[in-house]
Amino acid sequence: MVDAAQRLIQQHGYNGFSYDDIAREIAIKKPSIHHHFRTKADLVQTIVRRYADRFATLLRGIDASGEDAPARLARYGALFAATYQQDRRLCVCGILGAEAAALSPALALDVRAFFQLNLDWLASTIGQGQQAGLLRARGSAEEQAYGLLSALEGAMMVGRGVGTDHSPANAGATYVSNMLA
């Protein structure tokens, strides 16, 4: 049920799916969904928290690789590419961020926390790359982190909008290659 709802969010956004859509997709009755999730916001908050937890685990795995900053940033971009390659799905929090005004305050905070997790990880990784002399950048590591995350999230949306299969990893790779020392 949660997986089906996540796919629907990634394809249609928060306002683009209903409990009816989930029930049809997994062949259950709507009351079964309400039994587990009283409101749509409760369901989506569960999805966002799970998505953020999984993403944090992936980031820890990238860090554990022992690779240099440019290699870790390339692996980071590949996470977005892998998501997009699944029927042009968008990042759960990316699409929800675009709909922030329609979200409950608690859900909006969880989406914001996902982005902050990413920005903190990116700034740290970019900062390490700068200190090692592997990355050069105009502006602070925090500004570069914001730019890279924006490039990746935006590449997914623009790719879907123009109907291309170009991977968001290309946008990330271009951004990182411009920072290489």
Task: Say what the CATH topology is.
Answer: Tetracycline Repressor, domain 2
Distance between the termini: 47 Å
Rg measurement, Å: 17 Å
Average predicted confidence as pLDDT:
92
Q: Report the structural category.
A: mainly alpha
InterPro entries: Homeodomain-like_sf, HTH_TetR, Tet_transcr_reg_TetR-rel_C_sf
Protein name: TetR family transcriptional regulator
Keywords: DNA-binding, Transcription, Transcription regulation
Pfam family, one: TetR_N
Task: Note down, in words, how this protein is organized.
By secondary structure, this protein is an all-alpha fold. It has a single domain (45-177), classed as Tetracycline Repressor, domain 2. The protein has nine helices and no strands. The protein has helices at 2-12, 19-26, 30-36, 40-64, 69-84, 92-98, 105-131, 141-162, 168-177. Helix 2 packs across helix 3 (30-36) and helix 5 (69-84) packs antiparallel against helix 9. The radius of gyration is 17 Å and the shape is elongated. The termini are far apart.
